[in-house]
Specification:
The complex is a heterodimer of chains A (97) and B (189). With 97 residues, chain A is an alpha+beta fold. Chain A has five helices and three strands. Chain A has helices at 6-9, 11-22, 31-38, 42-55, 77-96, and strands at residues 28-30, 58-65, 68-75. Chain A starts with 5 loop residues before the first helix and ends with a helix. By secondary structure, chain B is mostly helical. Chain B has one domain (7-188). In chain B, 86% of the residues lie in helices and 1% in strands. Chain B is built from seven helices and one strand, in the order αααβαααα. Chain B has helices at residues 5-28, 31-51, 54-78, 86-113, 118-140, 144-161, 166-188; one strand spanning 83-84. In chain B, α2 runs antiparallel to α7 (166-188) and α4 runs antiparallel to α5 (118-140). The chains are: A alpha+beta (97), B mainly alpha (189). Chains A and B meet through α2, β1, α3 and α5 of A and α1, β1 and α4 of B. β1 of chain A pairs antiparallel with β1 of chain B.
């Protein structure tokens, strides 16, 4: 049986990963777009993104567009796989029930 | 790490909610704006055709179409702002080219067939626009095909069965229908 992933299971990180894996593999989303989508604060989102980035589950791309800094975030291949495994683990808990 | 079945269920529900919200945000955001813009243009333009002298109504249509073109470019540029993708950008350019070609082919067809009156001219344009709508629907969002078919059916019904109030018919049901559909998509998505 696939194990639950403690890093991903935290509520905000779970929602971040759910949003990111819904994107196409070649898509990345702007920080403020993700913040509005998930209805979280800048600080909260930033802290959880750091954890996910440290774990290698997301890729953070910082760049300048029209002289303004932009942060784009995408799920890494590893992140997509780990999230899929985590969902399977959650589903298997329900099946046991 | 161990959790109870109810916690697992809560987590899955939360995931599903975010997945749905993300899909709505990304794939549907902004589309409603095109419908509202062009619905308003149809409402004003066809109302003008129904109630104003032909030349004045024609000039109003030219102004409205230019306005619609500009607003469509603005909406198109803002569409999916916040999401980057190399393939998406390429698709956006192809869609813009497609609509430019629809416009050119429609103009050529009008030049060749030279419709006898305003109603025929309007139907020519509507049929080309609806053909483009169908093509977009088949490629991007299959659900929108039925709305395009419904609008085409409305236009043909008005043209053949209600020629006396055709423009009013198109203003209220065509333009009003697009505005209502746009507002519906905006609130639902």
């Amino acid at each position: 049986m696939t194990e639950l992933n403690e890093t991903i299971h935290q509520t905000v990180r779970l929602r971040i990963m759910a949003a990111l894996v819904t994107l196409e593999a070649d898509q990345e989303v702007d920080f403020s777009y993700l913040r509005n989508l998930l209805d979280v604060t800048d600080g909260n989102l930033g802290a959880h993104l750091r954890k996910l980035e440290e774990a290698g589950y997301i890729v953070v791309n910082k760049l300048f567009e029209d002289r303004k800094p932009h942060t784009y975030i995408a799920a890494s291949l590893e992140g997509r796989k780990v999230f899929k495994d985590h969902v399977e683990a959650l589903e298997s808990i329900l099946k046991v029930k | 790490m161990n959790i109870s079945p109810s916690e697992a269920e809560e987590a899955l529900v939360a995931i599903q909610a975010v997945v749905q919200k993300t899909r709505r945000y990304i794939s549907k955001s902004g589309v409603y704006a095109f419908l509202i813009v062009w619905g308003a243009i149809w409402l004003l333009g066809f109302s003008g055709s129904q109630f104003l002298p032909g030349k004045l109504a024609g000039n109003i249509w030219i102004g409205l179409d230019i306005l619609g073109g500009v607003l469509s470019v603005v909406v198109g540029v803002r569409l999916n702002r916040g999401v980057r993708s190399s393939t998406q950008s390429a698709s956006g350019k192809r869609i813009a080219w497609f609509w430019l070609l629809v416009f050119l082919y429609c103009s050529a067809a009008i030049g060749v067939a030279w419709p006898a009156d305003g109603k025929q001219l309007a139907m020519f344009i509507i049929l080309f626009v609806m053909l483009g709508w169908m093509a977009m629907g088949l490629l991007l969002s299959f659900a929108s095909v039925r709305w395009g078919l419904a609008l085409t059916a409305l236009a043909l019904t008005g043209y053949f069965l209600l020629p006396g109030i055709y423009y009013l018919w198109m203003a209220v049901l065509g333009g009003g229908g697009m505005i209502a559909l746009g507002l519906y998509i905006r609130s639902r998505w």
